[in-house]
Specification:
By secondary structure, this protein is an alpha/beta fold. It has 7 helices and 7 strands. A hairpin with a 5-residue loop joins strand 6 (about 160-165) and strand 7 (about 170-175). The N and C termini lie far apart (about 70 Å).
Length: about 200
């Protein structure tokens, strides 16, 4: 028994030291920069139905977006939009997600200049529609990921998440967590501009 106690006294400082090293090496990392195996990979194949109220702010002026809003959202629609020369953003959101509400005004501002598509994650149509009616709908089209299977294909950890898709349909960036002005100005906007400049 005394030997076991001595061993315990030796192991506890070692365990504490290991935890301290782990903490210090992770200090300063951006919690939004979670690794993703999907970076550099083609969009996963998906074809999601629309939710009620799924039309976007540009739907009336853009035939492709109008059709997409009426029929939901698919990887094909995203590839077609991206192939037209502009990278696109895909924003996973849900009405039950408080950070989604917090980022919504910024998503709306971004959507005035860049194509933003929404994937409504594990939500009811009624709740999602009420949420969009209250806050406004910035999305060109929305797909309803009722079972969360498309989220799994993208590697979603939680809500919200935003992906940047380039003109070749390749996932170039993934932001876990709510968009902020700092993330937008220092990371996403420069990336989008570089993707337009170098198709």
């Amino acid at each position: 028994m005394p030997t076991l106690r001595r061993l315990l006294y030796l192991l506890l400082p070692l365990a504490f030291a290991a935890l301290a090293v782990l903490f210090l090496t992770r200090l300063g990392e951006n919690p939004h920069d979670l690794p993703s195996v999907m970076i550099g990979q083609p969009l996963p194949a998906f074809d999601l139905p629309a939710i009620a109220g799924g039309g976007g702010i540009d739907a009336a002026a853009d035939t492709a977006a109008d059709e997409a809003a009426a029929g939901g959202l698919s990887a094909t629609v995203l590839r077609q939009t991206a192939a037209a020369g502009q990278p696109v953003l895909v924003n996973f959101f849900a009405s039950w997600c408080a950070p989604c509400r917090a980022e919504h005004p910024l998503v709306t501002r971004i959507a005035a200049d860049w194509p933003v598509y929404g994937i409504n994650y594990k939500d009811s149509a009624g709740d999602a529609t009420a949420w969009l009616t209250e806050l406004g709908n910035p999305y060109r089209a929305i797909g309803a990921d009722l079972e969360g299977r498309t989220g799994i294909e993208f590697g979603v950890y939680g809500m919200p998440e935003t992906y940047v898709i380039d003109g070749n349909g390749i996932i170039r960036y993934r932001l876990a967590g709510p968009l902020s002005d700092a993330e937008w100005n220092h990371t996403l906007l420069p990336l989008l501009q570089s993707l337009v400049a170098t198709p």
